[in-house]
Amino acid sequence: MPVWSCSIELALEARVAGALSPADGRTIAWHYTTAATDTEAAARVGITSGAWQRRRSRAVARRTATFQPRRAA
Question: How far apart are CA 28 and CA 55, in angstroms?
Fold first, then answer.
């Protein structure tokens, strides 16, 4: 299975679990499925390239945290 397919699947699972907003899910999906640069993607949603990169980074971090094993207290 391609890496992007796994990433999209995990984003969908995180969205269903309530860990990602629809915008976060779209951000991850656009990153893995389009040839758009960060600048093009940012312009599409009306934000700066830096803001887009931060949004994507935070969304990926939330997606990753959703599937991390919980440590015993």
Answer: 9
What's the predicted TM-score (pTM) here? 0.67
Cα–Cα distance measured from residue 70 to residue 3, given in angstroms and rounded to the nearest whole number: 24
- In the structure encoding, which two tokens stand for residue 5, read together? 């397919």
Distance CA 44, CA 18 (A): 25
67 touches 11 (CB < 8 A): no
Copy the structure tokens of residue 58: 């935070």
Residue matched to tokens 């699972």: 13
Give the Cα separation of 65 and 56 in Å (integer).
14
pLDDT in tens, 20-60: 888 888 888 888 788 888 899 899 889 999 999 999 898 88
